[in-house]
Amino acid sequence: MPSPHLDPDETVRHDQLKFDFARRPLAGRVILVSGGTGGLGAATAALLIHEGAYPILGYHTNKGRAELVQQRLQDLYAGPVALTQGDITGAAGRRRQVEDAQRLKGRIDGLVVCAGDPARARTQDLESPAFQEALDRNAVGPLLLARDVALAMQDRSTGGAIVLLSSMQGAYPFEGSLAYGTSKAALIHGAKVLAKDFGGRSRININVVAPGVTSVGMARASVDSGKYDGMIDAGVIPRFGRPEDVARAVGLLLDPESYITGQVIMVDGGLTLRRDL
């Protein structure tokens, strides 16, 4: 006797080898992209517009840059983009971003958190204030925003998807990244806890994308300086990452029907696998 949890029509379709790959899973969905005016956030927003979603870009303080990114995305991709301001390391800033998104469309279907900052102090010079700031910006703020959005989704009983951006340095120990790497590792572990807390009947998927050396954002200065050229020369990676690489991974995990949760997708061209070469 078939399980009562199977859809009979779907079962027949699958038995006939009729698989549904034609749908546009993100069309019409409202996605808050916190930190969305940076390079990776803007690439994600562009993909969302292309897929028919409605991105709401959260930014910290630079209103001029945010409005420029908003206008450029709308001009290039012919879709609406909204803005919301708030510092997600504080409860008021997180609340403002969530409330603005809900007020614009009445709901939030997905969240992407690109926000974060590198710790600039060297390991040997690192002191508690800089370490704590890295934890607040790279782990505590993003995780609590994810918690707040998950609660809002749970209240509506419609499910949803959350993607947090970590880093290859959060999944693999890199020298000199005590504060940054530790805070990004905390983000990964916290995301897995949230995936357990809001999985199952809540139908809220929570995952992590961990970029490697990418040609935009915080890594751009290092790329321009030639810091990572040797990795391509030695065949460790075939090329530097592109923002589209990261955006595509995020888009996959934002699919409301995705069967993936509590996972980390490395988008690093194999750098963390082959760094010892």
Textual characterization of the structure:
This protein is an alpha/beta fold. The chain has one domain: Rossmann fold, CATH 3.40.50. The protein has helices at 8-15, 39-50, 63-77, 91-105, 128-156, 168-171, 178-197, 220-224, 229-233, 243-254, 271-274; strands at 30-34, 54-59, 82-85, 110-113, 160-165, 204-211, 264-267. Strands 3-2-1-4-5-6-7 form a 7-stranded parallel β-sheet, with helices on both faces. The longest helix is centred in the middle third of the chain and has 29 residues, at 128-156. The chain is globular, with a radius of gyration of 19 Å. The N and C termini lie far apart (54 Å). The relative contact order is 0.13. The model has no long low-confidence stretch (mean pLDDT 93).
List keywords for this structure.
7 strands; alpha/beta; Rossmann fold; 13% strand; 277 residues; 7-stranded parallel β-sheet
Q: What count of helical segments does DSSP give?
A: 11
Class in CATH?
A: Alpha Beta
- The strands making up the biggest β-sheet line up spatially as 3-2-1-4-5-6-7
* Count of spatially separate domains: 1
Which of globular, elongated, flat, extended, rod-shaped describes the shape?
Answer: globular
Please name the CATH architecture.
3-Layer(aba) Sandwich
The CATH superfamily is known as NAD(P)-binding Rossmann-like Domain
Order of helices and strands: HEHEHEHEHEHHEHHHEH
Q: Calculate the terminal CA-CA distance, rounded to whole Å.
A: 54 Å
Percentage of residues assigned to helices: 40-55%
Strand content: 5-15%
List low-pLDDT spans: none
Helix/strand structural class: alpha/beta
Overall strand count: 7
Largest sheet, strands/sense/barrel: 7 strands, parallel
Radius of gyration: 19 Å
CATH topology: Rossmann fold
User: Averaging pLDDT over every residue, what do you get?
Assistant: 93
